[in-house]
Amino acid sequence: MSTRVRFAPSPTGKLHVGNVRTALMNVLHAKSTGGVFILRIDDTDVARGTQENEDAIRDDLNWLGLHWQETFSQSKRFNLYEEAAEKLKELGFLYPAYDTAEELDRQRKLQGVQGKPPIYDRRALELTADQKAAYEAEGRQPHWRFKLSGNSVSWVDLVRGEQSIETSSISDPVLIRGDGTFLYTLPSVVDDIDAKITHVIRGEDHVTNSGAQIEIFRALGGTELIFAHTPLLVDRDGGKLSKRFEDLSLSMKKLREEGYEPMAILSLLAKIGTSDPVEERFALKELAEEFSFEKIGRAPARFDDVELRALNAKILHETPYTVVKDRLDTLGVHGDEAFWLAIRDNIEVVDDAAGWNATLYAPMAGVIDADDKAFCDTAAELMDDEADWSELIRKLKDHTDRKGKGLFMPLRKALTGRNNGPQMGPLLTLMGADKARARLRGQIA
Ligand code: GLU
Questions:
Q1: Whose CA, among 68, 125, 234, 431, lies 20 to 30 Å from 287?
Q2: Reaction(s) catalyzed by this protein (predicted)?
Q3: How far is the CA of 187 from the centre of ligand 1 (A)?
Q4: Contact, 444 vs 363, CB < 8 A?
Q5: What is the average pLDDT across 336-349?
Q6: Please, are residues 91 and 219 in contact by the beta-carbon 8 Å criterion?
Q7: Is residue 53 in contact with ligand 1, taking CB distance under 6 Å?
Q8: 96 and 68, same structural domain?
Q9: Is 445 part of a structural domain of the chain?
Q10: Is the CB of 184 under 6 A from ligand 1?
Q11: Same domain assignment for residues 435 and 305
Q12: What is the pTM of this model?
């Protein structure tokens, strides 16, 4: 049977590096096994989800190259969840509860005082038909809870190994709210069964959920699937990723704006927290070939944007002009392949090309220290019309007593205004002799 996996974001927010990593693990597993990657939009929470977020999620995944083969939205499938709920009611797995939020809160506080865990005490199971009728007459609508077995549920997790959840230690989950809407728990199971999902790959914050969901799977007669719960991402300092991630270099929106390459982001997210070294990769295929659940460790994976920048630079150093041409055009960079090849080793993100473009072509006076003035004038005189750097250096060595840094640095500063940067040979050729001579003479050119 071929692998079928799904990434199931809720459109209540935008994508951040944490959920992109989950999407990536799903894609890599599908790719490495010749399977199918499904994008499921978990939009049962109509009040909090937005079309704008859903569009942004799809757009970001496409930009990253994480393409899905099938997709569907939960909001279009309420009839299936209703059917499943009816079945669970008939089988005695779903029971109505009338407790208000305040009552539940009070109950939890009392349990706290008594030193008991905050688990729902199933008082709703004791209600008589008359009591239920009385609540309904009061205008209370029931929410519906799934009756857990109270036994332990075990599975072999592809990342965490043997797992076991004591269902007696968790509250019977609410599957349907008082207003009749579904929480995520049941629709997810119904869809996983219906879409014939073989592997559920998601963050380890869902481990307890899985205990309850496995029981719902069983109750609905679904064949059991395989779970892989991956450790969560933490920031560089080991702290939780900020909830207000949208303005930080953690959101796809921000990383895209900052000019990062999809493959830099994917290379980093595929490797952090695994036994493989973090290295740049140029295609998803390479990452898929190297992917294995066994390599994923149990410790949280650190996401460090400094590491991302370094990977991005390495990827750009190998990126051909044809790949970036359109983006350079959009940035207003005028330059051809020679320009790109001259500067690509000295940039971290494509947008940095604009700076080098300005250095080369926008009018600028070179930086010349008083001690270097005569030397730079000599350089201007000796420069040939081809603006050949090696030729210029050879002549300067003959005509002056300068060498090493004392020879090169004044030229670089006069020609580019900077202390470091790309190799001077190609830069000088691109700049042309006239401009170079003028800058060496301290003129604006
Ligand atoms: N919508 C859920 C979430 O974003 C999906 C969890 C799952 O993969 O089952 O957490």
A1: 234
A2: tRNA(Glu) + L-glutamate + ATP = L-glutamyl-tRNA(Glu) + AMP + diphosphate
A3: 11
A4: yes
A5: 96
A6: yes
A7: no
A8: no
A9: no
A10: yes
A11: no
A12: 0.92
